[in-house]
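Lecture 7 notes: from sequence to structure.

We start with a single chain of 432 residues. Read the sequence below before looking at the structure.
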Amino acid sequence: MNLHMSQSLQLRQTLRLSQMMIQRFNVLQQSAQEFESMVDDVAKRNPFIFYERHGSKTPSVLSSGDDYVSPVDFATYEESLLSVLTNQLDHQFLSEKEYEIVLTLIDHCDDKGFIEDYKDVRATIMSTYHVDEREVFRCLKILQSFEPDGVGARSLNECLWLQIDHYGLDDPQAIAHLKELVKHHLDDISNAEHAPMLKKLSISQSTLDEYIEFISHLNPNPGSKYTQAAPVHIQPSLRIDIDDGVLTLVNLEEQRMSVTLNDAMLKQLEHDPSPELQQQLQQAKVWVEHFNKRQQLLKHCGEFLIEKQRLYFLEGDPFILPCLQKDLAVQLGVSESTISRLVRTKYIQSSHGVILLQSLCKRGIYGKTKHQVRSLVSYYCNRYPQLSDQKISELLKSIGLPIARRTVTKYRHEVNISTSYTRAQSSKKNHG
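Now the structure, written as tokens:
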């Protein structure tokens, strides 16, 4: 089973290396504070890992005087599953009825993220909104595309099925086998009854062991991480500095710590090449590689967002542009699953606050909210008063927002902005 990933980043894995593959994914999806804690723990257990902290604070060029308080000092989150899902819903461009149906489905998710009474919920939605089963199911699939992976499932089997889909695995046969196992053989896996599975799938015991290992790392409770009682302090992974309109990316994780091989232990190994030390060295090399790959992907992700979300970093929330994880995956030459895990728990600090990377790069999006479209039309009309509605339409298309000229005209009227001719004349008088 191969993951579709870039050779340049050397992240290509096979199911026969499933433990390393799962380990790599876990490293990528951890928040900054979880990752730093994990590296510290691994370094304590492996003397070949030289882990060095460079200080918990990093200077910010965003400051403006001694009284400045960094947004990081008060950056915490205490999100519920409901708020996480509704936030993703708010970034979809759905009809009012579609929005309400998905919201109703979200309201019926239990603490684990399941909709176990789906048939009753479906009947209520059909009656309330006068839609058929297919429309409700289509809205359910929208919810199931949200994160955390597996949310909106109607059963444990479907929850794991959805996670397999979201893993981004390449091998169709392996995917089919995994889905067969989670759909019909969870009890067999739990009871270690391998014979029925081997007979059904016609596979070897070693392949089955690999499948079961993979399934054991899926999450049967997607909503569990949102049940913590206390707020969690945010540790940003990236920062955007702005100097006279020039945006610069800073990798805060690399500033806070470094992970390398321990030179002293390498010298000791020359005198004592025992199998135990050799094994520890190989494990240390893997963790150093994990660290470097994480930092490399974070850097490329930040550079991509600087290019795509320049207006947001300069102007703020109303100017977040359509940006998909699949586009970032293509740009970096990795799987969408890799990007999904990278952006879901990482924060970026800017002059507009601390924001989740996932907010700037969505898994799926159906357009922009009307408020954001109006803000963008107003921004470009005021910045380029000489441009006609058609030209502004073309400009918006170039940044990923394909809307027609008449739509530009509509929103221009809503924000009380005059025609390009009137704006150009007024600009000439002001500069005259």
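The radius of gyration is 25 Å. Keep this in mind for problem set 3.
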